[in-house]
Design a protein that fits this description.
Blueprint: E1 2-3, H1 20-37, E2 48-52, H2 67-72, E3 78-81, H3 87-100, E4 106-109, H4 118-128, E5 134-139, E6 145-150, H5 167-177, E7 181-184, H6 194-204, H7 214-219, H8 223-228
Parallel strand pairs: 1-2, 2-3, 5-7
Antiparallel strand pairs: 4-6, 5-6
């Protein structure tokens, strides 16, 4: 699930202290890293980029994929435009669209955790194989989730208010009311706020294996890190 990285339309909770242009530039780096690191020879599934351009005020259905997203996600990615007026509706529609295409299991990850380990995605698919009628959720650190996987259509499973500290609990409650088996994965950081970005950089910035990443190149020795106090 991604947004077109337009200033003022993405990573807005980082503004301030970041400017809208800085937040958009950071988000492009996230997308470049996800697009490069996510394809894995050990992964046998198909990769879809479900995209939204919130800067477009028209209906936008069947719109062209923004060039920035095309540059971040080459082969083997396919593109699917999000539809719906809320995040919950868009998530519901993406799952439903992919199930209609014939997929038996769909795992949706965020675009706010460029460093999300591939084993967590594999664990989500593994969890869905245990029992038909399952949901896999990857909790983030503020009451939401960085990942959701299903083997049945969601049919209104996701809470209408998604940016709250109770969204994980509400989703679990909705799932149990539908007799879905719930599998929780390891908690992981997604980067929504300035504090999240500091936490991310303190862990990520010192790693030797990420020096080729766009996010590392952008943040290393960047004055905005000093503004954040990292």
């Amino acid at each position: 699930m991604v947004k077109s990285p337009q200033p003022g339309a993405c990573k807005t909770r980082l503004c301030p202290p970041l400017t809208p242009d800085e937040a958009a530039e950071l988000y492009v780096a996230f997308l470049e890293d996800i697009g490069r690191e996510l394809p894995d020879e050990a992964f046998e599934g198909d990769l879809w980029v479900a995209w939204a351009d919130d800067s477009e005020k028209g209906p936008g259905q069947d719109a062209a994929v923004p060039e920035t997203l095309q540059s971040c996600f080459g082969a083997p990615f396919r593109f699917l435009q999000q539809r719906g007026g809320s995040l919950a509706a868009r998530m519901d529609a993406v799952f439903s669209d992919l199930f209609r295409k014939g997929y038996q299991q769909v795992v949706m990850r965020n675009s706010d955790s460029p460093h999300l380990p591939m084993p967590l995605l594999s664990a989500a698919f593994d969890a869905l194989q245990h029992q038909r009628g399952s949901i896999a959720l990857g909790p983030d650190l503020d009451g939401g989730y960085y990942l959701a996987g299903l083997d049945v259509p969601p049919d209104g499973l996701f809470p209408q208010a998604m940016s709250t500290s109770s969204v994980l609990d509400e989703t679990i409650r909705n799932a149990k009311q539908r007799d879905l088996r719930v599998e929780l994965l390891e908690p992981f950081l997604d980067i929504d706020t300035a504090d999240d970005l500091v936490t991310f950089w303190l862990e990520f910035g010192g790693r030797a294996d990420v020096r080729h990443w766009s996010t590392w190149k952008l943040l290393n020795d960047n004055p905005l890190i000093d503004r954040l106090g990292a």
